[in-house]
Design goal:
CATH superfamily of one domain: ERV/ALR sulfhydryl oxidase domain
Oligomer: single chain
Radius of gyration: 14 Å
Order of helices and strands: HHHHH
Bound molecules: flavin-adenine dinucleotide
Largest sheet: none
CATH class of one domain: Mainly Alpha
Structural class: mainly alpha
Length: 115
């Protein structure tokens, strides 16, 4: 059904945007607690993602490609890579992960010197 496909795609775009933007704001040198928080978030996200078939597929991707949370770059590159795996499955274009840092800005007024 076309209507449902449109809604599912919109949810996907919003979700990816949030995920990539979060990675872009993740500390460059995270504490153990921050690493654990991101890892938990990703696993909970994969359980609670509203599109059930998407969630199931994403969980099996996580089994093969566990979240990388050691740094901002590691997390951003991991998210880009798993998004590309979903892209590939859905026969979409593969995204150049060299450009994620500049693409996903949060517009926050506390970006500081590392933004
Ligand atoms: P999207 O894939 O939503 O991407 C949005 C924008 O992000 C792109 O236009 C591009 O500018 C940028 N982008 C593209 N690739 C990357 C990347 N690798 N890294 C960073 N930025 C990138 N849909 C289904 O039909 N079946 C599924 O099983 C399914 N599983 C999903 C699982 C998850 C966890 C999520 C978040 C979404 C899933 N979706 C699924 C939705 C699907 O991935 C798309 O979001 C949706 O089809 C809309 O696609 P789009 O072409 O607009 O671009």
């Amino acid at each position: 059904q076309l209507g449902n496909a449109t809604i599912k795609a919109e949810l996907g775009r919003s979700s990816w945007k949030l995920l990539h933007t979060m990675m872009g704001r993740f500390p460059e040198q995270p504490t153990t607690d921050e690493k654990e928080a991101l890892k938990s978030f990703i696993y909970l996200f994969s359980r609670l993602y509203p599109c059930g078939e998407c969630a199931t597929e994403f969980q099996s991707i996580l089994e093969k490609y566990p979240p990388q949370v050691s740094s901002r770059v590691a997390a951003s590159q991991w998210a880009c890579a798993v998004h590309n795996i979903v892209n590939q499955r859905l026969q979409k274009e593969i995204f150049d992960c060299g450009t994620v840092a500049e693409k996903y800005k949060c517009g926050c007024d506390d970006e500081g010197i590392t933004a």
